[in-house]
Please model this.
Amino acid sequence: MALGIVMAGTFGAAAQAKTLTISWWGYNGDKLNANIIEPFKKICGCDIVFETGNNADRLNKLKLRDGKGVDVIYLTDSFSQIGIAEGLFQKVDPAKLPNLADLYDIAKNPQGGYGPAYTIGRVGIVYDSAKVNPPITSWNDLWRADLKGAVTLPGITTTAGPMVVLQAGKNAKVDAFSDADKAFESIGKLKANVAKNYNTGSEMVNLVSTGEAKVAVTQDFTLASLKAAVPTMTWAQLSDGDIATLNTVNIPKGSENVELAYQFINFILSKEIQQIEAEQGVDAPVSTKVQLTPEQAKIWTYGADMISKLNRLDYVKLNQAKTDWIDRWNEIFSK
Model:
């Protein structure tokens, strides 16, 4: 942790007696407090307070305060893109984040000059290899006749839900953003294979553990729970690739402690913090300097080879299309 401490320490004296306000989810609170908060407080000589809640609630609070009230905000990339579109964040100066240089390119500047990503995940397909044969190797396999009533999809308002629409467009050989009619015709055909849609990870794990579903479109952080419930659940090796999901950190336009916010963001991007967070099962690393054993890495989106194969989503287009897609999706699945 020496490098991160030395670099962060150069700001320490000026930051004394200040209070950094962080908006985040509050998950893994004990580990985050031990790995990040207490060490950072010793470096900056500052106090730290929190605003917690889900993406939508915290972003809405920031909007109601016109970008004021917090100094750093953690969000998934779909929600940080909304914040950018609504003018709630300031662009970042890369020169004030030296640890950016060690990140994978996908994490350095994912949204046009705003906050970097501090962790990465993926959306793909998992299936019960004891019951699904042949193996699933493509997104188009979701439409296979032998999977009738076997699939669970994420609800359209979840992070992964809109990704199903994009794959449905590809199944219909169109771009879902420019030809939603064809994409949703394909969703209509997929409905026959859907046992039930889910809105939370625990709901999805329950559908699989009870045998109601043998195939799920999901984020990789659910894989450990799925395998604990059904050991033969397997992450599909898709020829057309998984889809990247990023969690970003941004500085709101009304931050009253901008330099302290930069110091904090640089700290969490350091190799030392990224390493311990990954080793303890908190977040996947985006630092190229992190080294994990195969056992440590098996739950994460990890390494240059895996990350280079991920597909990226255009959240500007997605957020513009979302209201129409929600209506179309609900019309199909409410019947």
Notes: The CA atoms of residues 98 and 197 lie 43 Å apart.
